[in-house]
Amino acid sequence: MDMTSMLVFCVVVLLCYYALRTPNNIPMGPLTVPLLGNIPQLIGRNPLLLFRKWRKQYGDVFSVYMGSQLLVVLNGYKTIKEALVTRGNVFSERPHNFLLDKINEGEGILFASGTSWKRQKKFTLNCLQELGFGCNSLEVCIVDEAKILIEQIEQNSGAPLNLKDILIRSVSNVICGIVFGRRFSHEDKQFLEVLSNFSEDAKYLGNASILMNCFPFLQYLPGDLLGNKTILEHTKVFQKLYDDLYESHQSTLDDNNPRDFMDLYLTEMKKNSTLPNKEENTYSKNQLKALVGDLFGAGTETTSTTLLWAVLYLLHYPDVQEKCFDEIQTVLGMERLPSLDDRSHLPYCEATILETLRIAAVVPLALPYAITREVYFRGYRIPKESSILINLDSILHDCDIFKDPGVFRPERFLDSSGQVRKPNEFIPFSCGRRVCIGKKVARMELFIFLTTMIQKFKFFPVDPCHLPDLEGNLGITYSPKYFQVKIVRRQDVKS
Ligand code: HEM
């Protein structure tokens, strides 16, 4: 065969492949490579930037192939709301995930589906309400933790500091308060190991689990390129901590005086164990372990990463930092620590937190959804077993909703009288049946931790000529690249 015939042959094969690959009415998307799909385009690139480009090219509903697995990406507020709210009965399941199925066996909330997910989510939400979402006890816990955070930072005042680790410990201790009714010292070895494992897992989980879902043979490769073996190893460390706390709660349980989430769960578990129909009982020790892991995993990385982004943006926008500080100083002075009652009196600080949640889009693709039967949506056919990605970044960076979306401008969340104004489209915690259960606790933590830090300290870049990068890394969360910050006590700042 000469070169021309060879070329014609290749073109015909490719055309046939593409024609077969987009069977009737499946959403359009970028060209794919046989067997690999769009993986080559995604490797080493920021998928969020690619998705912005593809949305312009193919519209609000487009498809991406990971190997032969179809992912339908939904973009824009109207499309996403229509799917998750109007058609929430169809768009509410999670896909099977090779790694997580091994860890949680489909239990918990984050990656669970069906009746068990519904019951556990409802129960957990009720517990969180009972344990003080929006009332004093949780607030006291956050304020106490903020005081310890301040002490920790003070020990390093003036020196370049990796704030991320300290923030993770503080935020995670709030979850520990809710779940186990206790906090851990910032020096506790077991606690530190569990936290560092969770952080590492969040990095791996995004890419590794997607690739492994598409190409299961990857799990048998020698070594641990995708981190799956490390993740499974990490679960043993968490299991040990969990078992210890489970035993101590069991042995001291008083059904009439629940101290924390674990007590509430154990009491419910006892009640359910007497149900005549065993099928109806979705409460078990393993289920509780999955739930605790979910609250830790979902509650720690997200909130601490948002705080880290806030500090990073304050380095880039020192005028915003000064406006927040001035507002705090005027309303509270330098001594009285911020409390939740101050929220309405500190609208600029509140707006700064909302702007951070918007611009950083910490969970930019929500968590993957799956559909269990063929669905017609917006004129497209989405085949059974397809995965759905909810591109929250496409809303939070939509220039029709937020003018100059790449600019950090808290004022966009203030009305003409200086009060906080939130457009309906502002949904960093997603919406519909799968909406984040921790949004209230997260907003409480973000407010107390950030305003307390700004009241006590001023943040400086380590090298004023080279500010840390504003482009982050995408795992399950979108987090800043490693950076250090110089934090100086306000009373030591030379004006
Ligand atoms: C700034 C902090 C946070 C952000 C930006 C955030 C955002 C999100 C998003 C976007 C989702 C995915 C919803 C979907 O799939 O459509 C989610 C789910 C979830 N979040 Fe959060 N979250 C935060 C903090 C928390 C906290 C503090 C907790 C626990 C106390 C928590 C617990 C959960 C759980 C359990 C789910 C799974 C809900 C389900 O699948 O039904 N999150 N979160």
From TrEMBL:
<dbReference type="GO" id="GO:0046872">
    <property type="term" value="F:metal ion binding"/>
</dbReference>
<dbReference type="InterPro" id="IPR050182">
    <property type="entry name" value="Cytochrome_P450_fam2"/>
</dbReference>
<dbReference type="Pfam" id="PF00067">
    <property type="entry name" value="p450"/>
</dbReference>
<dbReference type="GO" id="GO:0016020">
    <property type="term" value="C:membrane"/>
</dbReference>
<keyword id="KW-0472">Membrane</keyword>
<dbReference type="InterPro" id="IPR001128">
    <property type="entry name" value="Cyt_P450"/>
</dbReference>
<keyword id="KW-0503">Monooxygenase</keyword>
<dbReference type="InterPro" id="IPR036396">
    <property type="entry name" value="Cyt_P450_sf"/>
</dbReference>
<keyword id="KW-0560">Oxidoreductase</keyword>
<keyword id="KW-0408">Iron</keyword>
<dbReference type="GO" id="GO:0004497">
    <property type="term" value="F:monooxygenase activity"/>
</dbReference>
<keyword id="KW-0349">Heme</keyword>
<protein>
    <recommendedName>
        <fullName>Unspecific monooxygenase</fullName>
    </recommendedName>
</protein>
<feature type="signal peptide">
    <location>
        <begin position="1"/>
        <end position="21"/>
    </location>
</feature>
<dbReference type="InterPro" id="IPR017972">
    <property type="entry name" value="Cyt_P450_CS"/>
</dbReference>
<feature type="binding site" description="axial binding residue">
    <location>
        <position position="436"/>
    </location>
    <ligand>
        <name>heme</name>
    </ligand>
</feature>
<comment type="similarity">
    <text>Belongs to the cytochrome P450 family.</text>
</comment>
<dbReference type="InterPro" id="IPR002401">
    <property type="entry name" value="Cyt_P450_E_grp-I"/>
</dbReference>
<keyword id="KW-0732">Signal</keyword>
<keyword id="KW-0479">Metal-binding</keyword>
